[in-house]
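All the exercises in this workshop are built on plain-text protein records. A record pairs a protein's sequence with a compact description of its fold. Backbone structure tokens are a discrete shorthand for how the chain folds in space. Once this layout is familiar, the rest of the handout is easier to follow. As an example, a complete record with its sequence and its structure tokens follows.
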Amino acid sequence: MNFSRLLRPLALGLALLTLASALRADIAPNAVRTRIAGIDVIAYPTGVRDVVTFCGSLPAGDSFAPANNLAVPTLVGALLDQGTTTEDKFAIAQKLDSVGAELEFDVGGTLMEFSGKCLRKDLPMVIGLLAEELRTPAFSEEEFAKVKQQLIGQLQRALESTGYRASQAFSEAIYQPGSPNYTPPTEAFLAAVKTATIADLRAFHAKYYGPAALTIVAVGDIDVPGLQTEIAKAFSGWTGGTAMPTYPKPAPADTDRDQSVFMPEKPSVTVILGQPSGLKYTDPDSIPLRVGTAILGSGFTGRLMATVRDKEGLTYGIGSRVGNDAFAEGDWRINANFAPALLEKGLASTRRELKQWYDQGVTAAELARTKTNLTGSYKVGLATTDGIAGMILATVNRGYDLTWLDEYPKKIDAVTLDEVNAAIKKHLNPDDMILVKAGTVPSIAPAAKK
């Protein structure tokens, strides 16, 4: 959970409008990558004036939780910006607010990630605060108690969301404990939040926080030698951290293929239909399967939206995607929302389109259109400093060299019709997918609704 989301100052927002005309065509030749104080530092200067965007990560997500408490990684991340051993949270916030800068932290399944923005002249101060918060969080009992209550409240509200409950059930169905993609039951996580101690947090921080696998990416109006000097100064003498583990191939899940989470008085039912993909992002079939999946269900040009929504009027939203595959084998899924009265018709229509896509494959015309859409979206994503920084970080976290960023459009363009249709048949099976429904599911007997 991210507890430090701030509204972005107008000055920075205006500075980060589309920058396509100002950015260089190739990223890898113009990026400067060095190891400083044990940290993988990547700087990419662009034509934007005065503004620097930065982001980074280290492996300290929820999958690293100690056996005695599931919630420790999230709680550590939540307390990073709640004061350090030398400054309280108000002093830190005042420093950032006074210059219109941002700095936020978030914890996911595998990574603790951070991001921020500031003016070029304020970068030394912001880098110093980043280092201070990463290295010496205060872990005060008072702030710890507040964060616990905030997290408990967020989780309790999430339990009222059909989307959250469906995603939770799907995760539990296809992943097992130990996978970076596994999400433990919310009730267990809530119990862990309540029983976690400051000692648990300090022990986790000491073990997993350090420069060993820390990456920092900075994009924008950068003085590269100056950035390197500030990082060296701010992080000097810091040691520790842990390397990213190699996750084994998951065992097949033994689970019900049709699951319902009944939630009374909900206007819609969230549906997830999918299965493990058996692929990591770096596997050869990953791009062909992504292209084929986009043809089935990416936006308004996908088959699912065109038929199930636009032609038949059965849903407001439906789509398909491949994901959760950066560090381990991920999953393939269709997400949709149906009114309870239209659930069975909507499911039948969805399964019909899925089966036709699987059996007959995609067409050459669909492939050509989707290639253009995907490369166009990719280039648009690189038209802001936010987009570039995030893509650089994702690329190195997936294990690629920076040249991947420049080669990606060519790799999309090189995908053939045979490769797409073969990947669909090889990695998916519509007859063996897991169906999760969350909401006011009409087929559940009244006795089960209590």
Q: What stands out?
A: The chain has two domains: 10-235, 258-449.
